Structures are given as structure tokens and as C-alpha cells.
Amino acid sequence: MTTDTNDLLTGDLKRNLLKMSIPTMLGFLLQSVYDIVDIIWIGRISSSAVAGVTLFSTIFWMVDILNEIIGTSSISLISQSYGSKDQNKTSLAIEQTLIFKALVAVIAAIIMLLTIKPLLNIFSKDTNVIQSALQYGYIRIFFLPIMFSSYTVNTALRCLGDAKTPMKIMIVSSILNVVLDPIFMFETIPGTSIPGLNLGVLGAGIATVISTVVAFIIGFYILISGKGKIKIKIKNIFKLDLEIDKKLLTIGLPSGVEMLFRQFSGMITIYFVSDYGTNALAAIGIGNKLFNFAFMPLLGFAIGSSSIVGQCLGAENISRAKETVKYSTLINISLMCLLTIMAFLFPSFIMKSFIKDPAVIDIGIPMIKIMTPALIASGVSMGLGSVFSGSGHNTPFMLSSLISRWGVQIPLIAIMVRVLKLPMNYIWSTFLIANIVEVIVVYVFYKKGTWEHKRV
Hints:
Membrane topology: Multi-pass membrane protein
Pfam families: MatE
Structural class: mainly alpha
InterPro entries: MATE_fam, MATE_MdtK, MdtK-like
Number of strands: 0
Subcellular location: Cell membrane
Low-confidence stretches: 1-6
Main location: membrane
Number of domains: 1
């Protein structure tokens, strides 16, 4: 086990940022591939199946708020402990994140199993859509604790300055899911004469669960075997430390509330889009998967930057933290500009890659053109916002979501749909408006500088 805790605090800053962010970005891109693969395969079943998975995914990510709260807290706890060269405190932070997050996931899964069907019925009365959502959803909910734990091991490794190992784990998981999807879903694997299990939408859920379990096992083994920079002890995983657990709940609480408002606004948006029919639901479902995929580079650089910022703050190196954020933001803007150009040039090709229904494609083309520029604004928000998760000062995330989503986007959508009864394309424009407002709020809090003095 290495004792070098200055990996990210010395040497060329740009090189360190790329060393942390590119593997993280690639890992998340490849992991999100299996979400896209799910939708592509599910699109071969029916538009109702796509709509069902869209509804379930919208509701399911509400429970990920808990993962966001604890995960965000763990970033600052682990990275600052490691940056201050306290290995015992670092180990304890990782161990407590694992057990506490898994316990919370069990509770969340039970609640989700009891409420998922009534929640789905709020959004759609189409029995085919509801049936698809439940077939895909029940298996995903049952394995929620494993999903949370898989996130934990990858986050811990990144906070220690190791971004390559999580990337490799995610590559293995993604390839496994891509291979298993057609085997579980279809009677005959498309393009071959090889028989499959013909489980339909359920098969897509099972394939995702298996790949998640494999990812967790690999990462957990690395942490307990001492092959990483910190070795955790299994006996400590079964002991709750109330002081640390309180921090895990409170440090990231504003970030969790932000995600709550963001996801809830997404549910409200889906509710309004449902006024335009099943084809519209299928289109925004594809759009969500597509933009989540495009969001992965931003997430990669945000996580890489946050880990470096956390270690810099632990070592009281404020100027290096600021430089890290500056370069991360510039890279984000460049990447999102490139993606926007591609979306404008090839919108039809992108939609046809997901589904063959002409009605859904016609809805999706303007959606892609109008919504994609919003990613540029997200690049700025994610770049500057990495200082908040690195420092543990996460209140700006919450306020930016409240103002941009609930103060701007949702009122605009309600007026457009229910009062003015405008065509659907006007809904897409609200995403860009909201993201611009979000940038303004994040920038104000970044310049205020509270994060520079915040420690956990």
C-alpha cells in the first residue's frame, strides 16, 4: 500500500486534471453506453416500452437523491482526509460510506417497491406503458443497495487520486451489459440465429443488474485487498460511526436537495409532455438518455476537479484549487461546443439510431437542436461548481436548482402548455433558459468565495 498522498498536489496541474478527469469521463461514457443500448434495444420492442422505461427511470432517479447526498459528502470527507495525510481517517471515511449508504439503500428500496405502481399511474393510464415500466423496474429496485455500493467504491478510489481503476471497472461492466442485453431480451439475438431468453424489457433490467454486481465485486475486492492506496477492513464495515454518519447526511444535504428539485422538475416536465401523447414521451425518453450520455464528459471533469480541489483544500493550497477549476471549466465549454455542432449536423441520424418510428423521430429532431446548446451552460456550471463538492459547501447547488428550475423553467412550461397551449417545441427552449440562469447563480456563489474557507 503506497503512502504517497501528494499525487494531485504536486507537478503539472493540467496533467493532473487530465489524469483524473479523462479516465473518469471515459468510464462514465462507457457506463452510460448500456443505458443507451437498453433504449436502442427496447426501441425494437415498441414505443410503449420506451415510454414505460422513461417513466420508471424518471421516478427511480428520485431515490438516487440519497446516493447524491452521501456520495457528495464522502467526496469532501475522503479527499480532504487524504490530502491532509491522515490515512486512518481516510479508511474510516470509506468504510462508513459503504455501510451507511448500503443501509439507506435498503430502506429506500423497500419504500420504492411499495410506491412505484401508484406513482406510475399518475403519469400514464396506458396499461402497456405501465407494464413495461414495472417489468424493467422491479429488478432494478431490488438491487438498489448493490448499485449504491458500486458507486461508493469508485468514488473512494477517485478521491485517492486513482481514476484509472474505476474506469477499467466501468469498461468491464459496460461490455458485459452490452453483451447480455440481446441475450436476455430477444427470442433470437438480432443479426444471428443464436437463441435468446426472450424476456423483453425485463431482460434489459436483468442485464443491467448483473453488470452492476460485477462492478461492485471488483471494486470492493481492490479496497479490502490493499491493492489500492488505502486498505479498508471488513470488520469496520459493520460498525456505524454516528459522528461520521451525521456528516455523510449533512455535508451533501444541499446537493441532495438540489437533485430532488431537479429530478422533481424532470417529473413535472414529463407530466406536461405526456399531454402530447405516447410518441412525445418516447421522444423525451430518448432525449434524456442522449443528454445523460452527453453529460458524462462534464461529470468526469467535475469529479476529477472536485477530488483535486478537496485534496488542495486539505493541504491549504487555495490558488491551485482555483487554477484547477479554471482549466476544468474551459475544457467543459470546448467539449460541449463540439457536441452541439454534431447535434445540429446529424439530428436525424441520432434519432434513427434509437427508434424507427417516424412520428417519434419527427418530434425528436427539433428537440435535439433546441436542447443541446443548454449543455454549454451546464459545462460552465459543472466546472465552477466542482469547488463546492470539493470543499463541502454545497448550498449553492441547492439554490441554483431552486431558482433555475422552479423559479424559471416549470412556470414557463406550465404557461406554455396549459395557458398558451403552444406546440411542444417551446418546451425544449425552457431547458436552455433554465441552464443560463443556473450559470449566473453558480458564478455569483463562486466569486463570493465561501468555499475557500470551508472544511469538513
